[in-house]
Amino acid sequence: MAGKGKVKTILISQPKPATDKSPYYDLAEKYNLRIDFRPFIHVESVSGQEFRQERIDIKEHTAVIFTSRNAVDNFFRMCEEMRINVPDSMKYFCISEATAFYLQKYVVYRKRKIFHGQAKFADLMAFVKKHKQEKFLLPCSDLLKPSIPQLLEEAGIRYTRAVMYRTVCSDLSDLSDVKYDMLVFFSPSGIESLFKNFPDFTQDNTRIACFGPTTIKATKDAGLQVDISAPNTKAPSMSMAIENYITGKD
After folding, report:
1. pLDDT value at residue 2
2. 193-239 pLDDT, tens per residue?
């Protein structure tokens, strides 16, 4: 932290946690920090009318791949908007157990064929490969990790990419500036939103924390210095990486 002073204020570019049980709140209390939350990006749904222009027939597919809760919500929203009854025989392949359980919001869980990975798409591919005969639908955002279609194509999986929602920059104009001691980002879109809202932003003494290699690359490409990165061997989570930085263990 040499030359940049003590960290007292942090802005997390994500929504405020739904409960009081958050490692960020623990950090704030432990080190007397002011931690604010503000999503720099948000999701907007694609309308049924717009989706029809993609000429994708949902009913032609026998399985769905879900990479997030947003994908789950927008798939069933689109089916309802287009008056499509999802057959009980539909198979669901979810990136994580949490995403699989989230399906209970829309289907009777125990009566469906549901498979899930361990939070990495590569793990889920083991189940997808065992069901190569299926025709998969991939509901997704306009911003899809290139590794996902790459893995599907390398395995010879028949799938259709269906853009049902978009990731867009949030309007941050009510923030007079972003002069915090630390800004925390979790995606390249967050960096894009920063400069869209504050085109004259200069880093100066602001520390920038980034989660994941694509976020780190986008930050550096924007000419900014990455002071804290996660996950790493000492800190699997962003909150741990921040704590290590503050305490000088980084």
Report:
1. 45
2. 999 999 989 998 999 999 999 999 999 999 999 999 999 999 999 99
Give the pLDDT confidence score for residue 21 in this predicted structure.
87
Low-confidence stretches of the chain (pLDDT < 50) are 1-2
The pTM assigned to this predicted structure is: 0.76
Beta strands 159-169 and 41-45: pairing type? Answer: antiparallel
Instruction: Count the Cβ atoms, other than its own, within 10 Å of residue 160.
Output: 15
Per the CB < 8 A criterion, the answer to whether 129 and 100 are in contact is: no
- What is the identity of the amino acid at 165? Y
State both tokens at 106: 């829309």
| Residue 40 bridge partners (DSSP) | none
- Domains annotated for the chain, with CATH where assigned, are 9-40+170-246 (3.40.50.10090), 44-166 (3.40.50.10090)
Rounded distance between C-alpha atoms, residue 105 and residue 189, angstroms: 28
DSSP letter string over the chain? -TTT----EEEESSPPPSSS--HHHHHHHHHT-EEEE--SEEEEEPPHHHHHTT---GGG-SEEEESSHHHHHHHHHHHHHTT----TT-EEEESSHHHHHHGGGTS-GGGSEEEE-SSSHHHHHHHHHTTTTS-EEEEEESS--THHHHHHHHTT--EEEEEEEEEEE---TTSS----SEEEESSHHHHHHHHHH-TT---TT-EEEEESHHHHHHHHHTTPPP-EEES-SS-SSHHHHHHHHHTT--
Amino acid at the residue 53: Q
